[in-house]
Amino acid sequence: MKALILGDLFITNDVLKLELENAFADSGITFEYEFRTNEWPVKPVEHNNEIREFVGPDDDIVPLAADAEIIFTHSAGVTRRVIEAAHKLKVIGAARGGPVNINAAACTERGIPVVYAPGRNSGAVAEFTVGMILAATRNIPLAHGSLAGERRWRGDLYVYEKVGPELNSSVVGLIGFGAIGRKVAFILKAFGARIMAYDPYASPTQMASFGVEAADLDDVLKHADIISMHARLSPESEEMIGAREINLMKPTAYLVNTARGELIDHRALYDALGEKRIAGAALDVFEAEPPPEESPIYGLGNVVATTHLGGASKQAAKIGANIAAKEIYKIITGTDGPDYCVNPVVFESTDK
Fold it and tell me: What is the value of pTM for the model shown?
């Protein structure tokens, strides 16, 4: 069986190949491979009017796809051109939670299922989120930068007006209570934090089982000392945190975003940070990545900023490839229906 492996510098060709072969280990099916690698995450993702969050042109993928029965990708773009060129294609697997780099509509027209790996980096992002909270509230990067970069001892960071809160005395507000939000709540409960959450798609009963209080968005914003974003980006959630919402926050509150930059109106956030209307922010995602040279982020002293590292762990790479490979196995062998398919409608009119 011919498999086209489209790895990158995070989920490598070797990882994708290994997990695919592990999934098919007892099937008797063997593979012939074609490989291509792009330079994500060193090279930033791109967007066009067809697909999002992909890296590299499709020019060199199209000829490789001609005989492929399986396409297994992470960040490479699978466009309509690729799909139309792949005459033998049976399934596309994406080792990521949101396969927006694949033209799912074109796949549906061809009857090709697209499977993916939801929650693959939820553990990595949850741990990173808690690290960002601690970094922002306890002045960790500021102290490190002063000592290691400037050889300056910042005893003044122990002054009462500059010290931050402990989590065991804080209210943490989660915006979104999916796989990542639930894991963040689990970790923060060990610190003794009181946790509120807003998610119109999660039930109060589900939240209560994690020791979390369900609340509407405004109540979370008004009462939380730390607000952490975990909503999925959609037309409804885009810029859900704007000037009005930021003005509801406590002047001592921190805003943390390890989800998607588009969830926040960054102009409103940067204005509030510059005017010290909130205490600070911890941002792993931005208005653009990298932020433009004129972005205020470069001059703000009350922000912890990282380069979209939340999901970066070795486990996340392997988990994503493992979940998607098992979904590919189900499609190819017909042993079971897939659990994570973008376009299940294809099974209504095909025998796949």
Answer: 0.91
The CATH number that applies at residue 191 is: 3.40.50.720
User: 188 near 195, Cβ under 8 Å?
Assistant: yes
pLDDT tens figures, 57-98: 999 999 999 999 999 999 999 999 999 999 999 999 999 999
Catalytic sites, residue numbers: 260, 289, 308
Pair (255, 171) in one structural domain: yes
Do 335 and 254 belong together in one domain? no
Residues 218 and 183 in one domain: yes
Same domain flag for 190 and 267: yes
Task: Report the chain's C-alpha Rg in angstroms.
Answer: 22
The domain of 14 spans 2-120+313-348
* Residue 258 Cα distances to 184, 239, 301, 311, angstroms: 11, 14, 19, 9
Total domains in the chain come to 2
Write the CB contacts of 158 (distance below 8 Å, at least 6 apart in sequence): none
Asked, as a colleague might, if the bond just before 291 is cis with ω within 30 of 0, I would say no
* Residues 147-186 pLDDT 10s: 999 999 999 999 999 999 999 999 999 999 999 999 999 9
Helix/strand/coil (H/E/C) assignment for every residue in 242-304: CHHHHHHCCCCCEEEECCCHHHECHHHHHHHHHCCCCCEEEECCCCCCCCCCCCHHHHCCCEE
Distance CA 122, CA 295 (A): 29
